[in-house]
Amino acid sequence: MPINIPKQLPAGELLREEKIFVMEEDRARTQQIRPLNILVCNLMPEKEKTELQLLRLLGNTPLQVNVTFLNTATYESKNVSKSHLQTFYTTFNEIKHRRFDGMIITGAPIERMEFEDVVYWQEITDIMDWAKLNVTSIMNICWGAQAALYHHYGVGKFELPKKCSGVYSHVITDLTVDLVRGFSDEYVAPHSRHTSVSIEEVRAHPDLRLLSYSDDAGVFIVQSKDNKQIMITGHLEYDATTLADEYERDVAKADNVEVPINYFPNDDPTKAPKNTWRAHSHLLFYNWLNYYVYQETPYKWDFVEEEIEYHI
């Protein structure tokens, strides 16, 4: 089934070139089907790249998906045009009366800042609190994962001695959990961050379940025991070249930048990297949409017995 996107969204043409079934809003309205409504709070600076990465994964399932992009009102991104934001994005005040089947909160390049020092922290916490009542399942990625662990469960972050950047091997703690159904016993995934969270603190928390970790990169996939919150500290959504782009950006800003671990062939930045995590990326998003969104969300939110409204 297709992913439904706004007409003229730049990512649409690239998705079609990749043979991903894309349907524009006008045609989608004519179909008698209940699509999943997914809200994406996109905090990444290069929003169009993140749009493409997430839409590619959301569009590779048998489910029809409507995507709404959310931007912060308290901070305007400097790396995307105002016209793009005005055309394809909405703000929290414009959607907080609605309910969504799923939500994604992305990473953001602000991890070295204290959470309370982030200019849009109050807005993000308002969104996270609203989502607990008005969204069936929330996937939090990288900084979004650390923010969710901190806000919902009091699990803080700490700065690493050096940036965790590269492609790391991970293990699964329980292969019977639906989110990691079909995963290999060991698999690789990209990380790109300056901070981390304590694996001991996550394991000891009564409301959390550690599903996957790396001996080198630490905590990777955490799930709340009520299945509401999913925290992914790395970037399974990344393209093959994303870490290379970040490496080149960092080199342009500073000397002695380390090459991402296990990424470039023979650790040579002049050689093209390969995407060795693609299969597990698609599997993770497929499992999330199927087991945590589609099979759990009400067919009609209006029929939920207990009325749950959130007011700001």
TrEMBL record:
Q: Which reaction does it catalyse?
A: L-homoserine + acetyl-CoA = O-acetyl-L-homoserine + CoA
Q: Which Gene3D superfamilies match?
A: 3.40.50.880
Q: What is its main location?
A: cytoplasm
Q: Which SUPFAM superfamilies match?
A: Class I glutamine amidotransferase-like
Site Important for substrate specificity — annotated at: S192
What is one GO biological process annotated to this record?
L-methionine biosynthetic process from homoserine via O-succinyl-L-homoserine and cystathionine
| Keywords from the named record | Acyltransferase, Amino-acid biosynthesis, Cytoplasm, Methionine biosynthesis, Transferase
Top-level taxon: Bacteria
Important for acyl-CoA specificity, annotated site positions: E111
Pathway(s) of this molecule: Amino-acid biosynthesis; L-methionine biosynthesis via de novo pathway; O-acetyl-L-homoserine from L-homoserine: step 1/1
Q: Where in the cell is it found?
A: Cytoplasm
The family annotation for this protein states: Belongs to the MetA family.
Protein name from the UniProt record: Homoserine O-acetyltransferase
Source organism (scientific name): Metasolibacillus meyeri
